[in-house]
Write a structure and sequence with these properties.
Elements: H1 6-25, E1 30-32, E2 47-57, H2 59-63, E3 80-92, H3 99-114, E4 116-117, H4 119-127, E5 146-151, H5 155-166, E6 172-184, E7 210-216, E8 229-235, E9 243-246, E10 249-251, E11 255-257, E12 260-264, E13 276-285, E14 321-323, E15 327-331, E16 335-344, E17 351-363, E18 369-375, E19 383-387, E20 395-405, E21 408-416, E22 419-420, E23 424-425, E24 437-439, E25 441-444
Parallel strand pairs: 1-2
Antiparallel strand pairs: 2-3, 3-6, 4-5, 5-6, 7-8, 8-12, 9-10, 9-13, 11-12, 13-14, 13-15, 16-17, 17-20, 18-19, 18-21, 21-22, 21-25, 23-24
Helix pairs in contact: 1-3, 1-4
């Protein structure tokens, strides 16, 4: 961002750059910055006039700006105006020798060559002795690039400019926009100290756990699969009877510390897991003391106080439990088996068939499943997508009708509610398919 000299610095830079260009192309031509109606008063016989005739707010920066003041008027950040500057370049001179048109060509060429006003170009203007009044300008420090774009004005627009705004006779003209110029205010901002910690409960025994992140324990960017371990990070996670609430069930995690919980998904029956986006919470009974847990073994989640001995803890009233926020993660399915049946079509005809896919996870009845087929060839591989029909009940197997598929060998993927299965790669250095995808495969005869 820059100070109040930014606009004048832009105009002076345009004048300096264009002066160096036109004086080499048209002898004696000069660049002026007069109002167009004053060009006859002391202006040279031939030249170019640069006039800033319009200013608009830049929509991209203005719409995304964060309010600089709080409700009480306190300044939270320095104010900023994002501006687009509109210039009219007018050309005059000996019409017999076509000086205005030669000057126009020189200007268009120069501005196309530059395209943007770089910090070095702006600094050269500030350092130029002809502009001592710009010495305090800090425009070269602006982070956003300053671009120059030619504007196509209709004849009616030009007529309105010259007759209505300038009240002068028309001269050969062209318009340019300079974007974006960020002018920063001088009022210093204030910012309070950040909140060091969050306590959502009324007393220490009911302080709510806070989940900040759920990821695969094998690595931050590793996909979460059926046999993965979840690493749950946050604050105030530890309690003597802390459980993971995943859907309607409560699950005992393997490791619990104040800032980290580990849950092995492989210990959960497959029919209790669902592919796709999952919501996860840390919960513990409200009357449980928050003590350090030393040894964890297999146990049945206790019924909360005021619930019957046979009540399902997962269905108990949330007021009887201390619950964390809900944090989402994506559980990606793995294709266990793929088969094709009822193939129709022969020779060069496209094939129609039924494809059965078996997953390691269960899908809900209303889950949206998309089957993706990529032909396993190097030159112009074919690609197909097919959507599964809605099922009547949850299942780990789908049957999708495909049509218009050429015979060949295809790599198979599937997405269940946006969670995509992985392809198998060959990492044997001695193999002919080293570092290539090799499965799951579907052969369409």
């Amino acid at each position: 961002m820059s100070n109040f000299l930014a606009i004048a610095t832009i105009t002076a830079t345009l004048q300096r750059l264009l002066q160096a260009s036109i004086q080499a192309d048209v002898e004696g031509a000069r660049v002026t910055t007069l109002r167009p109606e004053n060009l006859g008063e002391g202006a040279p016989e031939s030249g170019l006039n640069v006039f800033l005739y319009h200013i608009l707010s830049n929509p991209a920066h203005s719409n995304g700006a964060v309010a600089g003041r709080q409700r009480r008027g306190e300044v939270t950040k320095k104010s900023q105006a994002a501006l687009d500057l509109y210039y009219l370049f007018s050309f005059y001179g000996n019409e017999v020798e076509l000086e205005p048109q030669r000057l126009l060509g020189s200007v268009v060429r120069t501005l196309e060559d530059y395209g943007a006003l770089t910090p070095d170009v702006l600094q050269d203007t500030i350092d130029n002795r002809a502009y001592p009044f710009l010495a305090a300008s800090d425009l070269p420090e602006q982070s956003e690039a300053i671009r120059i774009e030619r504007q196509d004005l209709e004849m009616e627009d030009l007529s309105n400019l010259w007759s209505g705004l300038f009240e002068a006779s028309y001269l050969l003209s062209v318009a340019y926009k300079v974007t974006v110029v960020l002018v920063e205010g001088d009022v210093p901002a204030r910012r309070a100290l950040p909140v060091r910690d969050r306590y959502l409960g009324a007393i220490p025994s009911s302080i709510q756990p806070v989940i900040e992140q759920v990821l695969c324990s094998a690595g931050r960017y590793r996909p979460i699969l059926r046999d993965s371990s979840l690493l749950i990070r946050g604050k105030q996670l530890e309690a003597a009877n802390a459980y993971i609430k995943l859907g309607p069930q409560l699950i005992e995690p393997q490791t619990v510390t104040p800032n980290q919980v580990v849950l092995d998904l492989g210990t959960i029956p497959a029919d209790q897991l669902r592919a796709g986006v999952q919501g996860l919470q840390i919960v513990h009974p409200r009357d449980e003391p928050r003590t350090v847990f030393v040894e964890r073994g297999s146990r049945t989640p206790p019924a909360p106080r005021a619930a019957s001995a046979t009540a399902d803890p997962a269905a108990a009233s949330s007021s009887q439990w201390v619950e964390s926020n809900v944090e989402a993660f994506v559980l990606r399915p793995t294709i266990l088996d793929v088969a094709i049946a009822e193939v129709q079509g022969s020779e060069d005809e496209p094939r129609s068939a039924l494809v059965r896919v078996q997953f390691d996870l269960t899908m809900n009845a209303n889950s949206r499943v998309v089957l993706v087929l990529n032909e396993r060839v190097t030159q112009a591989p074919a690609e197909y997508l097919f959507t599964d029909r809605l099922r009547e009940q949850s299942s780990s197997e789908i049957e999708i009708a495909i049509a218009g598929v050429q015979s060949g060998e295809y790599l198979v993927r599937a997405t269940i509610d946006g969670a995509e299965s992985l392809l198998q790669a060959d990492f044997d250095p001695q193999s002919a398919t080293y570092e290539q995808y090799v499965g799951p495969l579907l052969i369409v005869p």
